[in-house]
Amino acid sequence: MDNHTLLSSFGKWVAPINIEKLTEQITQTGQDRYTKKFTTYSYIKLLLLSHLEEVESLHAMSDTLFDDDVQQELGLDSISVSQLSRKHRTVDPNLLASIFYQLVGQIRHSQPGRTVMPVKIIDSSTMPLNLTNHPWATFRKTKGGVKLHLRLVFMENGSSYPEYANITTANEHDRNQLEVLVDDKEATYVFDRGYIDYERFDRMTDDGYFFVSRLKKNSITRTIKAFEVEQGSTIVTDQMVAVGGPTKRMDNLCRLIEVDDTKGNRLRLITNRFDLKASEISDMYRSRWTIELFFKWLKQHVKIKHFYGHSETAVINQIFLALIVYCLHVLIQLETESRKTILQISRLLKAKLWKDCRHWLRRISGIP
């Protein structure tokens, strides 16, 4: 953008990051104590830009500094690959996690007042890694990987945003994350069969947490009471049941809903919510696919399938920066009340990256 006299689209996009708080954290941790020119904030902006542009490697990232606009934005005229690599593996992941949760807080407060109890979807996604280059990323005998455990909030307008993330090695079982990911009694948690754990379900019920999950096909249930099913709906049965067999069972009674999906497959859904219609429980579980779409977006539209560094810190940093990219998109979507998808907003941003941000905002707002 000419002389940067006006705020660029990129500048507007990253504006929600609280620079004052970030600077305070950097000072407290001494993150930039021996830094001469490549500051942590410059690193963050460069990596966000690299995610946005899906830059292939640190060498290609270094080459982006040939662009005058990038130089102006970062306050740098060049950066070596070795400097990039060193910074990427030494920035404290807690600093990036803090930015992520700060943006999550902004998203939460940008939404209109809640009219219904929110749905929070829990799932994980594994990113394979080469064990030779990433010996810390334990998974299988010959394979390595990291796992992103995620809690996604499904908003009333049908969109969603990541609310909590925990990154572990890929050998961490999903069930072990439930107690970390479940912390809001004013929400209903939705997850798939990989999280089935009768003991934890009992604790959740006793502690006042609500859940909806798919039950495994071989799970034993005993009908206590059958509820009336609405004619013409996809609901097949709606029952109060005891879950489990003689040696492994739940102490609390649950609700079992059998429903046919769009492909004609029979799904068995278990929940501790008896106050909703069976169709509402079914809709809640159907929203679980939102998190599958989110993981698909991450793997296709930011640099998450290939990592810029081999260390655990470098990998975790890259994942948190990808989550920050998504949150920044959601914030601009909420601010402009845009009906465009996150992908459309991202594409329009790339097209107007260093132009006056007003052009970008008009496009995503649908203003001629």
From TrEMBL:
Residues 117-328 form the Transposase IS4-like domain. Residues 8-68 form the DUF4372 domain. It comes from the Bacteria. Signal peptide: none annotated. Pfam families: DDE_Tnp_1, DUF4372. Coiled coil: none annotated. Keywords: DNA recombination, DNA-binding, Transposition. Belongs to the transposase 11 family. This is IS4 family transposase. The lineage of its organism: Bacteria, Bacillati, Bacillota, Bacilli, Bacillales.
